[in-house]
Amino acid sequence: MENAKHPVDSFFKEALQGHQVVPSEESKQRFLSEALSLESGRKTGARRWWLYWTALGLISITAILLFFLRPEPPPQSVNTVSTELQVTKPVTPMNDQAPVRQILPGLATASTSLMAEQSIPTYPIPVEKSTDSILNSHNVADYSVLSDQLPDAASVNEDSATKPAAISSETEPVVSMDQSQVSKKVQNKPFKPWHFTSSVSYTPEWMFNTLEGNKYVTNLALEGTFYYGRYSVRTGAGLSLTDGTNELAVEYNDFLGSYKQLDSITFQWDSRHYYLIPTYYLSDRNVWDSLLKLDYPKVIKRYTYLQVPLILGYDFLQKKGFTMGFRAGPILSILLESRQLSGGVQSGPDRIIRINQITPDRIQTNWQVSGSVNLSVLLSRRFIIEFEPVVKYYFNSVYEKSEITKKPWSAGLRTAVTFGF
Amino acid sequence: MESKEVFQKGKIRDYRSTVEALYNRYASSFLSLSLRYCGNREDAEDVLHETFIKILIHLPSFRKRSQGSFEGWMRRILINTALNFIRDRFKEMRHLSSDNFQHDPEESDPDVPGSFPGCRLPQDEILQLIIDLPPGYRTVFNLYVMEEYSHREIAGLLHISENTSKSQLSKARAILRRKILERIKEPTFA
Asked: What whole-number distance in Å separates Cα of residue B146 and Cα of residue B133?
């Protein structure tokens, strides 16, 4: 071994073998407290992630339930079928029994074929009376309302084909007229390849690769989206809020105390001109240690950014109740405000010599690019709920001294309630 | 106690006592090592602190690898932390990068170095001899002699040339040798 040849080398190596220097108790306690905070931070982080995943799971389950339990859209031929059924169906004894079945729910059946095959018990209830009761309790308005609502028309018309045929002779003109109006509405409605939506969105975001570790960022936005077929363009304005810890290095001299300095003395004769009475003019003088000390206080600030996105989208899947698509585009962030929440330099009577900012300030403007997969679930005719896992890459550092920091990236989940025009 | 085993998954009962045990076991020897690099106790304790925090943070990555000596792994972290500290702190390291290092004949290593019979200096005093070296000499001497790095490895770590590393070592040896001989001549250690 070349390293062990030289006598100086061997002398020092042997002499310092097993040498130990016991660290100070203060140093040990400092390490132990930091180690414990590190561990508690880990636990909190793990718990937070567990909560996020649970929330995400609940949102996903809700979305799936909403998708599968949504009302079925009407079949294409619904208007023709329903009209035929109502107009052509004659009033039969079977239909006379239908009101009885309505009055006695336990005997209700679901299909016309079943009614035809089974022997149905009759009850000594006058048909006219039962018809009236149905008209009163079941009311005609139901049918007119239902006929206005296109998605429910099929089920209503199927029911009307089986159950209330007895009253159809009375309600037929009304129903027929409404159905024809609906048909005309449907036929006359022009097809629009484009439409516009506006949305309110909330995006929790976790930013990585910053000087302060992982950062939590809250984004709120008002956005408008223009759709043309499968393509979309989204823009708007949003606020992005995040807290940051700024570390400072403060050089100061300790305050040692103060004394009264004699500035001047004046003498005056007393009233008898016998004594000279002195008057002392004193001023307070503070004394500071000449030793320069260093302290590292931390300041917590809240930064508010204005965000302007321009997100392009393409829906690769368009189903009756939901759509899925890709979204990507740039986002411009402009720092609106930085507000100090807590901390700061509290020197007391100590004399501050110099304050250096260790953590650099946040940058005024930065650009990000965002990529996401969008899932839009139709809640009603006008309202849509959107879930969008988002990944962002920051083109420049979020700090002013970009040479000592890296470019961050972030992951988040955008949730939005959208109103379609 | 095998420290690695203490940190094995499922064996940690009390985090604080485990961390404290780890610290108690290695802090003294690591502080000695740190002191050799940093030159003063305050900086050495800072480096030691940072090292132990890094050890705790990166412990899962060591577990995954599950190879090599745990102490060796911790020692490497300490040396890297100390070198980073020295790089940040001492501007002299920049001067080391000069390839045109002038070899001072007065400080150079003698051809026949001899040995130091009967020299029984206390460990703290010997450590002080190293600490008193200029930072560049000290770093190269520590890496070459104590950690047994080659000049090529030292050159890579410190971003200097191999010749510079050799020159620094030679000067460090000469200074140390002279100081030891001075001490030997003193009546206390004669």
From this structure: 15
pLDDT in the model for residue A140: 39
Average pLDDT of chain B to the nearest whole number: 76
Q: Report the complex ipTM.
A: 0.75
B14 in reach of chain A (CB within 8 A): no
Position A372 scores a pLDDT of 94
CA distance A77 to A150: 12
A35/B contact by beta carbon, under 8 A: yes
A15 touches chain B (CB under 8 A): yes
Average pLDDT over residues A19-42: 82
What would you report as the CA-atom Rg of chain A, rounded to the nearest whole angstrom? 40
| Cβ atoms of residues A296 and A358 within 8 Å | yes
* Nearest-CB residue to A21 (from B35, B53, B145): B35
Verify whether the Cβ–Cβ distance A11 to B146 is below 8 Å. Answer: no
Three-state secondary structure string covering chain B = CCHHHHCCCCCCCCHHHHHHHHHHHHHHHHHHHHHHHHCCHHHHHHHHHHHHHHHHHHHHHHHHHCCCCHHHHHHHHHHHHHHHHHHHHCCHHHHHCCCCCCCCCCCCCCCCCCCCCCCCCCHHHHHHHHHCCCHHHHHHHHHHHHCCCCHHHHHHHHCCCHHHHHHHHHHHHHHHHHHHHHHHHCHHHC
Say if the Cβ atoms of B177 and A8 lie within 8 Å.
yes
CB within 8 A of B164, min separation 6: which ones? B96, B97, B98, B99, B101, B155
Contact in structure between A368 and A394 (CB atoms under 8 Å): yes
In degrees and rounded to multiples of 5, residue A398 shows phi and psi of: -85, -5
> Contact, A207 vs A410, CB < 8 A?
yes
A35 to chain B: closest CA residue: B53
Q: Give dist(CA A246, CA A110) in Å, integer.
A: 71
pTM for the structure as a whole = 0.40
**Which two structure tokens, joined as six digits, stand for B74?**
């911790």
Q: With an 8 Å Cβ cutoff, is B131 touching chain A?
A: no
pLDDT at A88: 42
Cβ–Cβ contact B35 with A under 8 A: yes
The two structure tokens encoding residue A398: 């979020």
Give the up-direction half-sphere exposure of residue A21: CA atoms within 13 A in the CB hemisphere: 22
CA dihedral B16, B17, B22, B27 (to 10 degrees): 80
Question: Dihedral sign, CA of A23, A24, A29, A34?
Answer: negative
Cβ contact, residue pair B20, A32, below 8 Å: yes
Q: Which chain A residues have a beta carbon less than 8 Å from that of B57? A: 38
Using a CB-CB cut-off of 8 Å, the residues of chain A touching B130 are 12, 16
**Is A404 part of the contact surface with chain B (CB cutoff 8 Å)?**
no
User: What are the pLDDT digits (tens) for A154-172?
Assistant: 444 444 444 444 444 444 4
